[in-house]
Amino acid sequence: MDPFLAAVEQLRHPELRGKPVVVGGDGDPTKRGVVSTASYEAREFGVHSELPPRTAAKRCPDCVSCQWRRTSTTRSPRGSWPCSRKRGVRLRCSAGTRLSSAC
Fold it and tell me: Right CATH number for 4-68 from 3.20.20.330, 3.100.10.10, 3.40.1170.60, 3.40.50.720?
């Protein structure tokens, strides 16, 4: 479930498919912040969540850094969460997180 936000960015921007994508902070790897998620392509370089963006950029210089847009994952309750439920995937929302009505 961790690379979900990176997959959302790859869906929103088809030109990012197949490229290493890092989501977190304000999208600027030179500033302080935390990587929220990394695509499978970025994980091959050792990039993972809870990593400082500066470290992620050192491990994977070609990665694309994106700012997390809450509206892209919460706008439609009929988006990807109900599809996951139909496939038998159990989802648990952390306290304070309102991803959709599926939670």
Answer: 3.40.1170.60
What 3-state class would DSSP assign to 55?
helix
Q: What string of pLDDT tens digits covers the 103 residues of the chain?
A: 578 888 888 888 899 999 999 998 787 888 888 999 999 999 999 999 999 999 999 999 999 988 877 655 555 444 544 444 444 444 444 444 444 434 3
The three-state secondary structure class of 38 is strand
Q: How many degrees, rounded to 5, is the angle at CA 52 between CA 47 and CA 57?
A: 55
